[in-house]
Amino acid sequence: MFGLGRPQPTSAEKIAAVENELKVVAEMHSRMVKICTLKCIDKTYREGDLSKGESVCLDRCASKFFETHQKISDQLQKETQARGGGGFGM
Amino acid sequence: MDGLTAAESRELDQRLQKRQVKEFMSVFGNLVDNCFTACVDDFTSKALSGRESGCISRCVLKSMSTQTRLGERFGELNAAMTAEMQRR
């Protein structure tokens, strides 16, 4: 206001920032559920309970999904830096 | 949370509640689509057969267990990832 410090984010900006962060996490969660269901769950539905094999598959799928997320994120960051911050046309 | 004032926090809560309703509708919609696709394949009758109906019930039960289990794993893994990112 009086030229002191950097401009403060408005209320709307602060709320949008938190909301956006939660949205990213929620989207990742729903993608993981969709993908791991496809990979692990037997589609004949002869049983209403998760089998031992399906449960183990879901746990491993979740773990690998996160590891893949991290791996690709690291790799993209590295590639982008190597190209002087202009990688992938972004 | 993230240095929000009480009023901002209330506003955020209201928005998140709206999102939750939307998210529930989308989970419900996906459940119908998945279980219909997996279980309903006989169109010689307009009513669900006993077999289809049983399949749908089991599909719903299994999908709910899947949601719960993956929800737990997601929480753990997300917490670990957040901690790792803050450590770096």
Automatic annotation (TrEMBL), chain A:
Mitochondrial intermembrane chaperone that participates in the import and insertion of some multi-pass transmembrane proteins into the mitochondrial inner membrane. Also required for the transfer of beta-barrel precursors from the TOM complex to the sorting and assembly machinery (SAM complex) of the outer membrane. Acts as a chaperone-like protein that protects the hydrophobic precursors from aggregation and guide them through the mitochondrial intermembrane space. It is found in: Mitochondrion inner membrane. Residues 16-78 form the Tim10-like domain. The keyword Chaperone applies. It comes from Sordaria macrospora (strain ATCC MYA-333 / DSM 997 / K(L3346) / K-hell). It is a peripheral membrane protein. Belongs to the small Tim family. Heterohexamer. InterPro entries: Tim10-like, Tim10-like_dom_sf. Gene3D superfamilies: Mitochondrial import inner membrane translocase subunit tim13 like domains. PANTHER family: MITOCHONDRIAL IMPORT INNER MEMBRANE TRANSLOCASE SUBUNIT TIM10. GO terms for cellular component: mitochondrial intermembrane space chaperone complex; TIM22 mitochondrial import inner membrane insertion complex. This is Mitochondrial import inner membrane translocase subunit. GO terms for molecular function: metal ion binding; protein transporter activity; unfolded protein binding. The keyword Translocase does not apply. Keywords: Chaperone, Disulfide bond, Membrane, Metal-binding, Mitochondrion, Mitochondrion inner membrane, Protein transport, Translocation, Transport, Zinc. The lineage of its organism: Eukaryota, Fungi, Dikarya, Ascomycota, Pezizomycotina. One of its GO terms (biological process) is protein transport. The twin CX3C motif contains 4 conserved Cys residues that form 2 disulfide bonds in the mitochondrial intermembrane space. It comes from the Eukaryota.
